[in-house]
Specification:
single chain; 626 residues; alpha+beta; Heat Shock Protein 90; Ribosomal Protein S5, domain 2; 4 domains; 8-stranded mixed β-sheet; 5-stranded mixed β-sheet; binds adenosine-5'-diphosphate; binds magnesium ion
């Protein structure tokens, strides 16, 4: 038997790092600016704790410079810098992180310093876009500056340099395939995307500013050239909620989404440091009905560095419709998404966010019910979706989720139950909750229900059928029934004896006559002894059938239900005079005309009469009145 070590040499790994470590070449700039930021934050920390004697922290900035002719990109900082020895240690040793080491060394004092680095690999991303990389660096310690050069082969050179001020300059000799990174526009785009809220000011070129100088008649507009600082180093989410006003939150929203003109409905400030670290601000935007458009609007940061706007797996699915930022150093983003979902910290973060959102909604509901009702239409989708997908959220939201009626009264479930229990409990002791989805289309049915003193809800969000299904299974003895799903007497079955004006024999005859004229493939004739003043003909669609079809249209429900043809019931009121007329009419032609006309009227009130049939109906009606 032989044993041994697999020989991994740098020659082998280097090209791998270049090729596969980061799929996105553009992130090199984010990595180098993160290093420059770390170097500056380290110096800040060291001066704070008195470990950098004789050094003044001042107002350091980071500068990004393009040298188009020389095909070079410079990233310059005024941070701790490195001695030659440190370059050997931190740069030449791949996967050795000086950031990690620093945090380890200053464990207690530096844990909130905002240091970004972690894995000791970021620097090498420079070789994805550069043939050659130079580092000119001078440590804040009394030691000569160093100049490191490497052309991407593992060989490097290291010599003394004459840089005087502490800090580091990284020079990238941009390769042929990456010349886009010598364009000002492209660099600007990257700085805006990744570095907009980083904690150290970043200068990219200069810009002109005009200022008024002098007094009175002598006053002149004068042009000044100032540094073009591309970032806001103190974004709102890094501040304490107590230090922010409503206006600050709105301004920050505009900063985040400059192209968004609609104001957010409200915000939620996230702020925890145990058992994980997380800050952020979430906004409830006004949602349009196109839900797919709303996704990927929450931006994810780690220590103020933008990482991604794909928060799938970190934020519960139903909250991906929100906007805003989340910042947490505790999300392992270098791993695959499926692994992410199994990560303990990520799970905790996700349920923390859910809880915060639920608490915020609850307090809005408690503090200003009227305002909450006004906003309900805009926020209901998120809440209803949350109730469907997260059991814990359901339990909380059950206390503040609102059920509006067609007359614009808003009830919580409990209030609704209390309000309707006397009048809307059926003979089997089931509470029947009536609803409509369209006030105009279902007007006739709504009216009939209201005449009986029933409350009719108006539920019109696209996922409502799923929500009703969920409510029916989590609460006892209730059922939701749409007003047009049966005749009014059958919607809420009471124990009343129904008296029919027709004998059983007459009913059979009537049914036969009707079925000859009414198209069988569309309608099932259903005779009912209703109030003589109730509609003679009504078209209904059974709740179960319709709901399953709706559910399969929006994902879910019973398999195959979506393909079932539309079937309706034609409820015929045997106690109505017109129906009696139909039965007793002697001529076949007249009988047929009466049935057709009545059927069409019933269809008309359900919005089902269209096309040729509508044209025929209109013609026939004119003939009847002329
Ligand atoms: P990480 O940032 O994860 O530690 P990097 O590969 O990005 O890994 O950097 C390796 C190390 O090189 C850093 O930890 C730091 O010690 C050193 N370094 C890189 N850039 C700079 C810089 N601009 N100033 C000072 N030190 C730097
Ligand atoms: Mg780094």
């Amino acid at each position: 038997m032989t044993t041994g070590n697999i020989n991994v040499s740098v020659e082998n790994i280097f090209p791998l790092i270049k090729k596969f470590l980061y799929s996105d070449h553009e992130i090199f700039l984010r990595e180098l600016i993160s290093n420059a930021t770390d170097a500056t934050l380290k110096l800040k920390h060291l001066t704070n704790i008195g470990e950098a004697p004789g050094v003044e922290y001042g107002n350091p900035i980071i500068e990004v410079k393009i040298d188009k002719e020389g095909k070079k990109l410079h990233i310059i900082d005024q941070g701790v810098g490195m001695t030659a020895e440190e370059v050997q240690k931190y740069i030449n040793e791949v996967a050795f992180s000086g950031a990690e080491e620093f945090l380890e060394k200053y464990k207690d004092s530096a844990k909130d310093s905002g240091i970004i680095g972690h894995f000791g690999l970021g620097f090498y991303s420079a070789f994805m876009v550069a043939d050659k990389v130079e580092i000119i660096t001078k440590s804040f310690k009394e030691e000569p500056a160093a100049h490191w050069t490497c052309d991407g082969s593992p060989k490097y050179s290291l010599e003394e340099a004459d840089k005087k001020e502490h800090g580091t300059e990284i020079i990238l000799h941009i390769n042929k395939d990456s010349e886009e990174f010598l364009e000002e526009g492209r660099i600007n785009e990257l700085l805006t995307k990744y570095n907009k809220f980083m904690p150290i000011p970043i200068k990219f070129g200069t810009r002109e500013e005009t200022k008024k100088v002098g007094e009175g008649d002598d006053a002149k507009e004068e042009k000044f050239t100032v540094d073009n600082i591309v970032n806001n180093p103190d974004p709102a989410w890094t501040k304490q909620p107590a230090d922010l006003k409503e206006e600050d939150y709105k301004n920050f929203y505009r900063e985040l989404y400059p192209m968004q003109f609609e104001e957010p409905l409200f915000h939620i400030h996230l702020n925890v440091d145990y058992p994980f670290n997380l800050t952020g601000i979430l906004y409830f935007p006004k949602l349009s009905n196109d839900l797919t458009m709303q996704k990927d609007k929450i931006q994810l940061y780690q220590n103020q560095v933008f990482v991604t706007d794909n928060v799938e797996g970190i934020v519960p699915e139903f909250l991906t419709m929100l906007k805003g930022v989340i910042d947490s150093p505790d999300i392992p983003l270098n791993v695959s998404r499926s692994y992410l979902q199994a990560d303990g910290n990520v799970k905790k973060i996700s349920s923390y966010i859910t809880r915060k959102v639920a608490d915020k909604l609850k307090s809005l509901f408690n503090e200003n019910r009227e305002d909450f009702e006004k906003k309900w239409n805009d926020i209901k989708i998120v809440i209803e979706y949350g109730m469907l997908s997260e059991e814990k959220f359901f339990d909380k939201a059950d206390k503040f989720a609102l059920y509006p009626t067609v007359d614009n009264n808003y009830f919580t479930f409990e209030e609704l139950q209390e309000k309707i229990k006397d009048n809307q409990t059926d003979k089997d002791n089931k509470l029947v909750i009536l609803y409509a989805s369209d006030k105009d289309a279902q007007h006739t049915y709504i009216n009939e229900a209201k005449e009986r003193g029933y409350e009719v809800l108006l539920l019109d969000s696209p996922i409502v059928s799923h929500l009703l299904q969920k409510l029916e299974t989590s609460k006892e003895n209730i059922s939701f029934v749409r007003v047009d799903s049966d005749s009014i007497d059958n919607l809420i079955k009471k124990d009343e004896e129904k008296i029919s004006k027709l004998s059983d024999e007459e009913k059979d005859t009537l049914k036969g006559v009707l079925e000859e004229v009414v198209p069988k493939e569309k309608f099932t004739v259903q005779l009912e002894s209703l109030d003589s003043k109730a509609s003679p003909f009504t078209i209904t669609q059974p709740e179960f059938m319709r709901r399953m079809k709706e559910m399969s249209a929006t994902g879910g429900g019973m398999f195959g239900m979506g393909n079932m043809p539309e079937m309706y019931n034609l409820v015929v009121n045997t106690n109505h005079d017109l129906v009696n007329n139909i039965l007793t009419t002697k001529t076949k032609a007249k009988q047929e005309r009466l049935i057709k006309q009545s059927l069409d009227l019933a269809r008309l009130s359900q919005g089902l009469l269209k096309g040729e049939e509508l044209t025929n109906f209109v013609k026939r009606s004119y003939d009847m009145i002329k």
